[in-house]
Amino acid sequence: MPGPASNRSKSESRKIDSLRRERDSIRRILDQASMDGVRENMERLGERLDKIESEMSGDSNS
Questions:
Q1: What single DSSP character describes residue 58?
Q2: Does the pLDDT at position 1 exceed 60?
Q3: Cα three-residue angle 6-8-12, rounded to 5 degrees
């Protein structure tokens, strides 16, 4: 039969595994948030480029 030290070790291992899963989940969330910011910046840059191209071509409808 496993003794108290073995049970403590298993409990600590479970806590460590849980913390690792939580850390990985947080990393994924942060990565996704970062990608959302990049996507928004790309959209804004695209809009600015469209406006500049329009101004350069003499089209003043913008």
A1: T
A2: no
A3: 120
Residue 1 DSSP one-character state: -
Q: Domain map of the chain by residue range?
A: 4-59
Q: Which tokens sit at 19?
A: 């913390």
Rounded to the nearest 5°, which phi and psi values hold at 2? Answer: -70, 140
pLDDT at 8: 81
How far is the C-alpha of 17 from the C-alpha of 19, rounded, in Å?
5
Map tokens 């003043």 to a residue.
60
pLDDT in tens, 6-52: 788 999 999 999 999 999 999 999 999 999 999 999 999 999 999 99
Give the integer Cα–Cα distance in Å for 19 and 50: 47
